[in-house]
Amino acid sequence: MNVVERLREIGLHHAASKYDELARKAAEEKCSYEQFILKLAEQEKRERARRREEVLLRLSNFPVIKTFEGFDFRFNPSIEKKVLEELRTLRFIEERSNVLFLGPPGVGKTHLTVALGVEAIKKGYMTYFITVDEIARRLRTSKEEHFAR
Q: Collapsing DSSP states into helix, strand and coil, what is residue 32?
């Protein structure tokens, strides 16, 4: 059994796919064994983080993917950047607090909610997007199913 097969056998699939390329570069750069193994492990770690983020984004139920960088504060100047920067730290998650964005249609609630969710996913948190209307609909449906008149 060769190194690539062994890497695959123990579940290091991305490292296995990058092994030959990294081994060639390591030889050219005269890297130590330790440096080579570290680079291989870093590749695997980055790929796993990327795949985890991809899966979490897919499961999040976001209607679109939005970021804070894409938010135009000129569009709604009543939104305080300082408050959003504090939310962006995700401290509210660690404190087990809730965040609600309230306002009329078209003021940026969905954009900011999704952007906050994307930030959370980047930090490894699972998120799920749902509107208040959908929650109410599910509660009504649940009540009707369980408490028939």
A: coil
